[in-house]
Amino acid sequence: MAKTMYPAMTNSPGTELSADITVAATTITVINGNALPAAPNLFTIGSDETAETVMYAGKSGDNLTGCTRGFDGTTAKGWATGAKVARYLTAYDINTLKENVEGISTETINKISAKLVGDLPGIYPVGISVFSLSAADSEAWKSAVGHSGTGDATLVETSKITGDYVIVQRVTFSNTPGVTAVYERTSLANNSWTGAWVKLVARSEFDKLGSDVAAHLADYVRQPAYAQTAGTATAYTVSLDPAPAMLPDGFGITIVPHVDSGASPTLKINSNATIGLKKQDGTAAEMKAGKPYTFRKVGSDFLASSGGEGVKINGQTEVTVKYGEPISAGDPVFVPFVRTPVAIDQPSQNVRDIAPHPNGQHLAVGNQVSKYLSIYYKNNDYAYVRGTVNVDVASMINSLSWSEDGNYLYVGVTDAPYFLIYKFDAANNTLTKLAQPSNLPGYTVNSVFVGGGIVVLCTSQSPYIHVYTPGADTITKVAQPAELPSSWVVSGAFSVDGSMLALSLASSPYLMIYKVSNKTLTKLANPATMPTARIAIAFSDNNHLYYGIAMNAPPFNLGSYLKSGDTLTMNGETRTEGNYFTKLTICDIKKILAGIVYGSSSSAAPFNASTYGISKSRIEKLPMGDTTDTGSLSALALSPDGRYLFVGASTVTPSLRAYMNYELAYKITSAAGATGAAFIGYAAENGSANETKKIMAIAK
């Protein structure tokens, strides 16, 4: 039986939802009901791959009733006021047309066996078969000859309705066009016809319907295309089916870039000429990966008509924050970072190093007195608790590092055996000491760096570095690099992509960089501009290397090198502090800022820990207040998500401090203004005070 087909609307005029709807709503109100056909029919909400098709049973003015949500395999969901609505051509329309036409194909029909009727002459079946049957009105019944359905043949379907009447439908064929026409007539049981053949539909009508559908599918002016791009950031490509032979004015297409756009992007559609993508003002389009953008061809350009949630702003990123007051979508906002102390159990004294676990829930702390190694776990947002693990490693701890998978803790110590490996059970907060690896250095391990599939031990004596590969419950020594440091390592860091290892040395040259490839270190050329004093270093998430002067050699600058492939280039922008940088640590804070936390200290002054925000190559001190306390700073670390700062000190109690970084969004038009903003932006959602919502943030 043929499936129901629904009428279309010329040019598919659009309207919008006049109110929010839920996933269960069956009555939907639009702004202009005249943009949709009479019920029953279909309409589409949205215009990309997340669109929903809805069937409505009734229509009264602007109200669509008896709605079947998520029709034809689409997904029903809630939609906001203003969502686009139109009677577009849907998969259901095409598939139903295809099924209805194919329902009369010879391939399907010839698979059905004929059934004989007892009270008719046994020569004429009820059912479907192929006969040599004349079209003449006066022709008597003909016998079935089992024709194949091609050439001069007729397909006949008969249907008994009473003991005296049979409905006969005839589909005629010829070799060239295939189906030529469909007819219908009725017959009495005595073989006399009650009327002439009546033509229901001709081949020309089939052909016209097919050509109309093909033309509609290829009409990218009235029905814009949709495609994911390929190619490059400056030369996008898409392939459409059917392929357009030309790109006339008004040609429409919605693209979803696979990468952020570069300078002056272009689009090539199938084999047509490459065309520039422009904003409405004629300047080059700027697009973000994964967002839909709609363009129309006007003259020699594609001009943007919509998409991508508005114009892309360099540095703009969607982030989730807590609102400090009621805020409406679109309100300009500012977000200050705030730091507050967090409770943490105290070790015996004199913290030597701190290593947050990659899971963000655990913390390894090494100290100098009594039990040397402790594991802490996060109890809640405002407390870290020391677990039952308190391991006496029988030597002073110099360095703690977790394996890349977080399953092992590597410990560098002052006395023999100089290096230890512990296996970590996060579920039970336990450490299990493993057997000592072979080929360990024979002297103090000052620091351990992990990344790029290797483990690097830095020692107090030449050759100063020793390279290993991690394995199950051990590490294995591999070949040393051809060029080795000329002095002991002060600080080190792997780039986030693991392709580079940077080492800060105690004497000139103060910086040495290695390429990491196939678990091998190869010395790279020195940057054109080298540091002139000892530095503390750390890589940011965008693979830029940040440094701070780590010895009493003013000016105490904080600066960066920009990484490009195997090359580091010093960035001219620096910031100056009042004391040297003992430690430097970086992590991602809400995606748009990498937080540089540095600690400065001296034996005669309290330590000071401040935070900078970085965006691209800029460095800005965040107005969240310095963390200042007594004692000499000995350790500094940020949790992987940047939310917690851990500070270790020597000679004083408490020797371990923890702080939580958090943020609240406020309207720039509020009484507080934008004072103390870490970054600004605009609200993406309505929300009340203390609700967690999305904003589009722009680095300050």
UniProtKB/TrEMBL annotation:
InterPro entries in UniProt: WD40/YVTN_repeat-like_dom_sf
Domain of life: Bacteria
Listed name of the protein: WD40 repeat domain-containing protein
Species per Swiss-Prot/TrEMBL record: Paenibacillus dokdonensis
